[in-house]
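User: quick one - fold this with magnesium ion bound?
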Amino acid sequence: MKSLLIACDFDGTITTRDTLHVIVEAFGTRGVWAALEPRLRSGEMSVEQAMSEQFATVRATPQEVAALVRRDAPVREGFVEWVRWCRAEGHHLVVLSAGFRSVIEPVLAEAGVGDLEVVANDARFSRAGCELVWAERGERCGICDRMCKRWALNRRWTGQRLVYLGDGISDRCAARMADVVFARAGLAEHLAEEGVPFTPLHDFVQVRRDMEPLVRAAA
Ligand SMILES: [Mg+2]
Ligand SMILES: [Zn+2]
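Assistant: Sure. Structure tokens for the protein plus magnesium ion:
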């Protein structure tokens, strides 16, 4: 059986809700993003700068953030069993997130898969305001003109079939690189509009069921 490279988004894909939205709603100042939107659209400000300004208003300790995320953004059904299945089958599984390691790692650890490979930015939470730390994301992508997830994917790809799972804008370009895509929410709508085939993602019990024949076909 040939192994696969499986790349999975975190927010809204592994978790039922986007942790960044949950955190800003609970601990940040609402409306900051909307106020920055015109400057974002005109190109005066980058997405990273806007996110940094938004998160500077988030006043909470790492413990408070972890407790909130555990409560309001749990992992989707079947996730842990799916991770164990991927590993037992010998696939290379990596979490590719535009979000923050300090949010992701406690969630994965709590679920019992704290040793999963994670590519993400980071956030230093404190009562004085949160400081974002942007990870090295390589060159600007020649296809989407962003610092997109393709760079991290390309560095891990050794010619195997690629499976991508995601839900948002930051998943669009990487999904177009994959042989098989599981998509939900905005990513599913986007791919449908573009005529790109994908399998809807409801939960990981279903993902595993849908992946099994695919793995056999690749063997
Ligand atoms: Mg997402
Ligand atoms: Zn790209």
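One thing worth noting: The pocket of magnesium ion (ligand 1) is lined by residues 9, 11-13, 166-168 (CB under 6 Å).
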